[in-house]
Amino acid sequence: MKDAAMNDILIVGAGPVGLTLAAVLVRHGVRVRLVDKLASASPYCRAIGVTPRTLEVMDDLGLAGALVDAGIWLDGLRTLVHGHPARDSDNDFADLPYAQLGVPQDATERLLAGHLAGQGVGIERGVELAGLTQDETGVEARFADGSSARFAYVVGCDGAHSAVRRVLGIAFEGEAWPMEFMLGDVRIDWDLPPEQDLPRGRALFALRPIPEAPPDLFVAIPLPERGRYRVSMVAPERLGAPGQGTGHGIQIDRPGATLADLQEVADRLLPDPPRLSELRWSSIFRISMRLAARYGTGRVFIAGDACHIHPPTGGQGMNTGIQDAYNLGWKLAAVARGEAGPALLASYEAERRPVAEAVIARTVEQSLNFGRPRPPEDRLADTQLLVNYRGGPLSVGAAVGPVEPGDRLPEVQGLRRHGLGFPLRLADAVRGPDLVLLATVRRGEVSALEALAAQLRASVRAPLRLVAVAPGDAAVEAPPGVSLFYDAAGMFAAAFGPAPAALIVRPDKYVGWTGAVGDAGGMLDYLTGVLGLAAG
Ligand SMILES: Cc1cc2nc3c(=O)[nH]c(=O)nc-3n(C[C@H](O)[C@H](O)[C@H](O)COP(=O)(O)OP(=O)(O)OC[C@H]3O[C@@H](n4cnc5c(N)ncnc54)[C@H](O)[C@@H]3O)c2cc1C
């Protein structure tokens, strides 16, 4: 390990959460060290489902297009019960900016690692965190090779068996499913009649319900490569090794299932069983449900599976961890850069722990009802677009139309900008690491914003942009210091209501403060008082 400057942030673990956190911190200009105890990246594809909300995060980081290219849209699900087709259901997400994507976790990790490499950040592999000691000014990290280094902050993105969580003495209460599961990456040749064709992008769940017990099941999730699937099922007892293994996740210290083991379950549960072939890898995995009692202590935080583990149903684990990183990243960057006081960091646990608590409850409930149709009002539950921080410590003000402080910034399309011959989304207007004051104004009020933009910028040290949206077409050029958009399609007014209003949008694209466009005092109170930003 080379010497670290005190401003560095150490990220322990280069899974999807550590990689996302590094990407967020780097775009804020913060120097990071990213270490992982594995000598090479894990070849296992655990997560496949990438939620619409994660795609919004990746859009902000400039990676959504590459992720879409690497993936396959998960269009729907066929359920078979006792070998008979019970139903085909479609994922109906045509009204969302992004639908549900499938990308093997190792490909997501490669993409993030490649992005970081392009910014000059490498993963230090074969480096295992062994211990931590912290004082008021920094954290001393000790590594398994006997070396040590000092950092301003440390974040443990080191998975379910987090060393950072253990060193901090944070309880990880919960329980485990008694049975084990097996996973495999195989080719499946469906030999189905044309009327039962399984289109590319459709998953298959085959179930045999068992009274008073979990169902016997065979789950095939399509992978981007034509004809390939990630299959999962309950492992037969003969493959079990009670007392061995590591409690949650893939049991890398034990042999996986054979192709014959996987085929046996397909033969038992599928009519006209297809032939499974070309097994690339397989593994045994276990499922636990646990939530960390705290998300950090002092200058050390945890994120992702280090905080929360639960059944993979609904594909929430990696995605929830990525949102942890997106929430913590801008706060940690603001504090590390001296733009905000450390009190801002307490909002990370306050906002994210209740989200994980809800995810654990939902995925456990879904697992117990596996294969049953879900009520229509649950349609968006797993998209993560409904996650909000209403009532949280950083959410202040009254509703603007249907949008409340603490809500995710809604999707708006059809904005126009003077001089640009193409429509834009609100996501384009607020993209980037800065805080944004989003003001809706009448056409004649645009010039008054120039002075407001200058006043706010002079008042806080953190970068802050002013984005204004006026009704109608892109008639007038923006005044200096203001990014001016026109609501040509009326979608902005539909999302926020017609009345002029101002919103402070956080770098993770959640609404922080709402108020009147002229309420500069209220804005400054929020920025300096609630967010604790340093005076400019
Ligand atoms: C079968 C299965 C299917 C799943 N499907 C989905 C899905 O569809 N969608 C979804 O969102 N989630 C899914 N998940 C969950 C998802 O895989 C995890 O939530 C995700 O991997 C968590 O990412 P992470 O970065 O927090 O931890 P990990 O991916 O576990 O990464 C932790 C990293 O930390 C490193 N590390 C550990 N200890 C140390 C140490 N002391 N020093 C240095 N490095 C260390 C490890 O080597 C590892 O690389 C699934 C899981 C399973 C098992």
User: Tell me, what is the CATH class of the largest domain?
Assistant: Alpha Beta
Bound molecules: flavin-adenine dinucleotide
Rg from alpha-carbon coordinates: 24 Å
In CATH, the architecture of the largest domain is 3-Layer(bba) Sandwich
Gap between N and C termini, in Å?
36 Å
Please work out how many helical segments DSSP would assign.
12
Count of extended strands: 28
User: Average pLDDT across residues?
Assistant: 93
Q: Structural class per helix/strand content?
A: alpha+beta
Residue fraction in strands: 25-35%
Shape: globular
CATH topology category name of the largest domain = FAD/NAD(P)-binding domain
What spatial order of strands do you see in the largest sheet? 6-5-15-16-17-14-19-18
Measured as a percent range, the helix fraction is 25-40%
- Count up the domains: 3
Are there runs of 5+ residues with pLDDT below 50, and where? Answer: 1-5
The largest sheet, given as strand count, sense and whether it forms a barrel, is: 8 strands, mixed
Spell out the CATH superfamily of the largest domain. FAD/NAD(P)-binding domain
Question: What keyword list fits this structure?
Answer:
12 helices, disordered N terminus, single chain, eight-stranded mixed sheet, alpha+beta, 28 strands, FAD/NAD(P)-binding domain, binds flavin-adenine dinucleotide, Glutaredoxin, 536 residues
Please characterize this protein's 3D structure.
It is a single chain. Helix 10 links the parallel strand 24 and strand 25. It is built from twelve helices and 28 strands. The protein folds into three domains: 204 residues, FAD/NAD(P)-binding domain; 113 residues, Alpha-Beta Plaits (2-Layer Sandwich), CATH 3.30.70.2450; 105 residues, Glutaredoxin. It is globular and about 70 Å long. The strands form six sheets. It has an eight-stranded mixed β-sheet with strand order 6-5-15-16-17-14-19-18, covered by helices on one side. Helix 1 packs parallel to helix 4 and helix 1 runs parallel beside helix 7. It has 536 residues and is an alpha+beta fold. The protein is 25% helix and 27% strand. Bound molecules: flavin-adenine dinucleotide.
